[in-house]
Structures are given as structure tokens and as C-alpha cells.
Amino acid sequence: MKNTVEASRYRAEFVKGLWKENPVFVAVLGMCPALAVTNTAINGIAMGGATLFVLTFSSLLVSSFRKLIPKEVRITTFVIIIATFVTIVDFLLQAFMPAIHKELGAFVALIVVNCLILGRQEAFAFKNPVRLAVVDALGMSLGFSFALFCLGAIREILGNGSLFGITLFGPDFEPWIVMILPPGGFLSLGFLLLFFNWLKQRQEKKGVENGY
Amino acid sequence: MATDLLWIFISAMVINNFTLYYFLGLCPFFGVSDRISTAFRMGMANVFVLLITAFCAWFLNSFVLNHAPYLRLISFIIVVASTVQFVEMAIKKLSPALFRALGIFLPLITTNCAILGLALFATNKGYGLVESLVYALGAGGGLTLALVIMAGIREETKLLEIPKVIEGTALNLIIAGILSMAFMGFAGLFSTT
Amino acid sequence: MVELQQNRGSSSLRLIATLGVAGLFSGLALVAVFLFTRPLIEANQAEALRIAIFQVLPGSESYKTLELNAKKLQLLSNEKESTGPKKSNPRIYAGYSKSGDLLGFAIPGEEPGFQDKIKAIFGYDPEQRMLIGFEVLDTKETPGLGDKIIKDKYFRSSLTTLKIDPKIVAVKPGQKTAANQVETITGATISSKTVIRLLEKTIRWWLPSINKYLETQ
Q: What does residue C165 show for φ and ψ, rounded to 5 degrees?
């Protein structure tokens, strides 16, 4: 009995990051990387992967040592831990995927100031047991990666007529270049949020009509 | 030399605007942009912290980090955060008026990605002290400009009847997108000869 | 006393110890990763440079690094290349054919373009006083428009037989009459003009020291 309760708790903590509390679409956190590097789907996934690595390991460490870290210096300690993992990711990308690193540039280092990561340490990892913290981190960063992939895919398809570098349309397709430029980042996320708002409003209306 | 510095300044301010081109400092851009006066003060506080950051980053890069490049990120964050705190205390003591105008924003700004972004970009470009400071001035000016324009537009939107479905972040993002498009017009300022 | 402090929060000693330990471990981890990845990163960077040099100096099989020191070009042993943000003296690269003949120099340069600085490297053949190759290293020019400086075949081919005397100049498309002229690209006028300005400025800047270096050889 206890096991199923626990299992469902794990599932809940995992799933919430994917959709209901999606860091980009719902909480609108970590916008800087979400907009800056998503001009192609690949870049979005790479950024998501780097964030996944940093968030998961930071949560693991913070949660493991949560009883040893004094409350007064917790933020500084979080920042040291996060910055360490970001530097590690930066070096690993430079060593093994130089092309991706060149595309992402300084934005890999800027993962440090992604409010999503510090936010999860403060709100979750510091208060919860290790396994739960890792599950939460995985869910959140997968949700983040998913959102980045969506943005990247939309911008690449509209702005370049391709997905993962493969041309989708015939030669007659005139790409909306603005979509892979910075304004396209703002506009894509803006219209996506608008779409979700609209969905939510429609659901609420339906709920009212059904009389509940 | 002078034209180089001018290029750095203009490029950081409008052509490659930190907020509208690099998406840095979006939190204050959406958070503190509902009134022009607040937005302007926030911008000024940003200029101030950016200048300190540029100096710290240059100092660390030239004297400390040559032998330990792997400590760059950590030392940037920690040094910038503590320097800003020191300066905050100093201002509180020396000029309470200035502190009331800028002080409340200072702790907010330290965790702003524009600050770290400036330090990293200046490092990547290999800027010296003067270049870094000019770059910081340009970047701060650009942030202020974007914030004030955004606040001006949002003050107007408050007087309008906006469909509920678009209110909030969605609307702000779309406004920012249009602003960003407008700023694209500055591209080519330095090469139309 | 100790209890009192505990109630109010942790003692400052404990705070310092926590941060110290965190810093220590983070430092250790970083040094380990740095030492492990540094050879790979340096190999990657050297490889990228090598490819660029061999591309702009067709037929070259090896290169040597030349550094400008006190207005004189000096040969640098390839192992001594330092990486990192520290500004080193300006460098160019001499490319050699399989039999060891000097083919030309690969010269990097940069110039503010439409959006941000365009960084490029080009090959210069001192015998014919001609540019023989061109490669863009880094650009943020508008995709689909400004990036034609990379994709436009005619533009690029005109940079592989470009005389530098008396001056590299830009002309409108279809108006090229001499070997020192380059036609700009329709739709990427500013970016292509920037490239031409970059070539002219950089080669003029280097020419005296290259000539002096060749005399002493």
C-alpha cells in the first residue's frame, strides 16, 4: 500500500514539470535561454540537455547535504554548486561537441543565472529527500527541454523551412526570416502563451456550461 | 580608437541591445516596466551595477584568472555580488538620497543575467579596461532605453480595453517582439558607407 | 551560550566552514574536469584553425605561426600556442606545400558588419600579390540575406583571384572590369562591402611587415 502511494507521489512530482507546472509555458521562468538559443530545434534540445545535467546534479547534491547546509548561507552554497556544474558542462561541450558549443556561445555559461535552477533548489531540493528531488529535477528539466524544442521547432520550420536541418518544403516556400531572428523569439513565445490562455479559457467556459 | 569605442557603445546600446537582441535582463524588463519613472530608475541602477561589473571582470581577467580560467564563472558571480553589496552599504552611508532612488533595486539586479552576460561577453571579446567600461555604459543605456519604452507602452495599454485572453505575459512578449523588430532597423548603422 | 547561538541560527564559524568546504570541493571538481578536457579542447581549436588555414591556402599541407613582436614578424613554434582570453600579439600563418615551398599567408581580420563584427581569414599570395582564398570564421549577419557572403559562389570565387593592387575595391554587380574589383551581392550589399573593406584594411595593415619578413628570409 505504502509503495503505491509513494510511487504515485514520484509520478506526480515528475509529471508536474512536464505540463501543469511547465517552467516555460506556465511559470515563464528561464526565458533568457529559452528565447536566445531556440532558433533551431537542435539548439533548443542542446540547451535543454545542458540544463538537465546542471539541474539534476545540483538538486542531487543540495538535497543530499540539505541537513548540513546552514540556512543563512544556503543561497551562496547553491550558487557555488550550480556554477561548478555549469562550468563542467561548458568544458565538456567544448571538448566533445565544439560545433554545438559555438552555436550556444556564452549562453551555456548563462545557465547559472537561469532562475529555474536556483528556484528548484530553494523551493524543492532543499526541503525534500534525495530521490524525490532528483525526480522533480528530471521532470522540470524535461519540461524545460520540451518547451525549448517546441519553440526551436516552430522557429526553424517557419524561419528556415526546415526541421533538424532537413528541408521540409519545396523551393517555393519563402521563409519568414524574422522568426529565426530575435523578434521571432518574443513573438513565438507570446503567441504560444496566447494559445494556452485561449485553451484554458475555453475549458473554463465549458466547465461553467456543464454547470459545475 | 575613438571610432572603435563609439562603435562598441552604439553597438551595445541599440544594434545588439542586451534585452531586445540577446534576451538578457528579461526579468526586470517584464517585472519593473509598468511605470516610466520606476523603469528609468531601474535602468540607472543597472548602468551603475554594469559599470562595477565591467571593472571587476576586467580586474579578475587581467590579474587573477590567467592561471585559473576554470574559476571564471564562479568568481564572476561571487565577486560581482559582493562588490555590489559593498557599494550598496557605502551609498547608504554616504548618500541616503541616492540610496532611496536606486537602493531598492540593487539586490534584485545582482542576480540579473544581463550582469553576468556583460562580464562574459566582454571577456569573450577580449576587451581592455576602457573598452569594457564603454561597453557597460552602452549596454546599460540600451537596457534603460528598452525599459523606458516598454514602460511607456504598458502605461498606454492600461487605458485600453484588452481581451482577457491576451492580458499579461503573452501581451508583453508580443509588444517586446514588435519593439525588437523596430530595433532591427538600427542594424547597419556602422556599415552603410 | 552555544545553545543560544544555535537557537538564533548557526555560528559564523559554521557558515564559513560550509562555504569553505563547498568552495574546496567545487575547486577540486573543476580542476579535475579542466585537466581532463583541456587537451581535447585545445586539439579542437587547433584543428579548426588548421582547417581554416588549409582552406584559404589551397594545396598547403603544413603551416607555421608568425607573431608580430615589436613590429617584426617572428616565427613561433606550434606547440607554444596559448589559449584563453588573454590578448596575444597579432598573428598570421604561413602555409607550405608538401615539398616545403611557401604558398602564402593566412591572415585573420575583423570588421563591423550589418549586425556585429564579421570575423574572417583569407589567404594572400605574396608572389602574385593576390588573394587566393577566403573563409568566414564568425558572423551574425541576417540569415538568408547577409549570410550570402558565405553562400554566394560567384562572390566567393571572385575572392580567390583578387589582385590587391592598387587597391581592393567594391563595384556594383555586373560591372567588374579589373582584377582588383569585387562585385557586391544583391541583397547583401552591406555585408559584402564589409568583407571587401575587411580585406583591404587588413592586407594594407600587414603588407609592410610581411614584405620585411620575406626580405629577411
A: -105, 145
Interface contact flag, A79 B78, Cβ < 8 Å = yes
- A138 contacts A16 by C-beta, under 8 angstroms: no
pLDDT along chain A (212 residues), means of 10: 75 81 79 83 90 93 88 84 92 89 84 85 88 91 91 88 79 80 89 87 78 54
Bridge-based pairing state of the strands C102-112 and C117-125: antiparallel
Residue with cell 550570402: C148
Q: Say if residues C195 and C120 touch (Cβ distance below 8 Å).
A: yes
pLDDT band at B146 (very low <50, low <70, confident <90, very high): very high
Lowest average pLDDT, out of C1-10, C51-60, C69-78, goes to: C1-10
User: Half-sphere exposure of B59 toward its Cβ, with a 13 Å CA cutoff?
Assistant: 11
Are A186 and A35 in contact, with CB atoms under 8 Å apart? Answer: yes
- State the best of B14, B16, B26 to mutate against chain A, taking most chain A CBs within 10 Å: B26
Chain B residues in contact with A73 (beta carbon < 8 A): none
> What CA–CA distance (Å, rounded) separates B19 from B29?
8
Please state the ipTM of this predicted complex: 0.83
Q: Quick check: is B193 in a domain?
A: no
Q: What is the pLDDT of residues B76-106, one digit of tens each?
A: 888 887 877 877 888 788 878 777 776 667 7
Interface test with C, best of B123, B129, B184, B191 (most C CBs within 10 A): B191
C33, C190, C197: best to mutate for the B interface, most B CBs within 10 A: C190
Q: Report the residue from C9, C44, C144 with minimal CB separation from A72.
A: C9
The answer to whether C13 faces chain A, any CB pair under 8 Å, is no
User: Given a cut of 60, is residue C1 above it in pLDDT?
Assistant: no
Q: Hey, is the C-beta of B3 within 8 angstroms of any chain C C-beta?
A: no
- How much is the pTM? 0.83
Distance of CA B91 to the CA centre of its chain: 20
Cα distance from C186 to chain B (closest Cα, Å)? Answer: 14
Domain that holds residue B78: 2-188
Q: Which residues in B lie closer than 8 A to residue A105 (C-beta atoms)?
A: 124
